[in-house]
Amino acid sequence: MRLARIYQQQPLNSGKIIHLSKEAAHHLVRVLRLDVGAEFILFNGEGGEFKAHITSVQKNSVSAQIGIFNPVDNESSLQIILAQTIVKPEKMDYVLQKSVELGVTHIVPLITERCLLPKLSPERWEKRLAHWQAILINACEQSGRTKIPTVSRAVAFKTALQQIKADIRVILAPNATQTFSQLYSQQWDFQQGAAKESNRSVYTIHEDCELSGNTAENLSAKSMVKSCYCAAVLVGPEGGWSESEMKSALAADYLPIQLGPRILRTETAGLVALTLLQAAYGDISLNLV
């Protein structure tokens, strides 16, 4: 039986006894019906996870002792920023959940010209952000990830273009002429030459979407393709991008990419793009031979 995984935003050390959060306690005891002695997995988003067991169940609190640390690392070498136009709440929740399962690193909710933007007060927007963060945590618990992706506050389209920095920048557009396979072929050709340079930079994404670099030496072209890229994907609303938005994206060096002959819903398109990026540059393996 697969052990339940619980996220706790606090320091975790082997041998330590901790009090679980109210939400975690409710899930373990009321939903899963676990009792004293039952084992589960703890993680705090800093990498790795701990085996733990329940030591005490009280009316208003549940305690657990932290056991052996497992330095598991199932994060993709590819950093992915998903800039998703805001859609209806249930669809947005779906995109957030599934993008975590597919290894997204950072999510930027986009305000575009044709999106169905809810009229919310600042307080309601903060509650919406907290709700999104909770979905990311729950998805990490389910999918086995040990680091929590980040989600930013909703930002205007042009602001996102200014803030997001990535090696591969893609805007999904049904009428585009280029496909992901063509993109991969071009990037591979570029990397074949770049691999000969000993001071190639390796980029990582931070919460503010900016990039920092450090030197990686003696990397083969294939290993560099697998580990050195940060990709950004822009996903539009159901009504599509406006002409001005597409022009702005092109000016910011975003490459229009189409996902095939059929029109995908906005909540589907981004997930397909994540899958293709992970298959080309990340940790989804396609053993077709």
Automatic annotation (TrEMBL):
Tell me the domain of life.
Bacteria
Report the InterPro entries cross-referenced here. Answer: Alpha/beta_knot_MTases (IPR029028), PUA-like_sf (IPR015947), RsmE (IPR006700), RsmE_MTase_dom (IPR046886), RsmE_PUA-like (IPR046887), tRNA_m1G_MTases_N (IPR029026)
| CDD domains linked | RsmE-like (cd18084)
Compartmental location = Cytoplasm
Q: What does this protein do?
A: Specifically methylates the N3 position of the uracil ring of uridine 1498 (m3U1498) in 16S rRNA. Acts on the fully assembled 30S ribosomal subunit.
Q: Which NCBIfam families match?
A: PRK11713.1-5 (NF008692), RsmE family RNA methyltransferase (TIGR00046)
PANTHER family named in the record:
16S RRNA (URACIL(1498)-N(3))-METHYLTRANSFERASE, RIBOSOMAL RNA SMALL SUBUNIT METHYLTRANSFERASE E
What name is this protein filed under?
A: Ribosomal RNA small subunit methyltransferase E
Q: Where is the organism placed in the taxonomic lineage, from the top?
A: Bacteria, Pseudomonadati, Pseudomonadota, Gammaproteobacteria, Legionellales
What is the primary gene name for this protein? rsmE
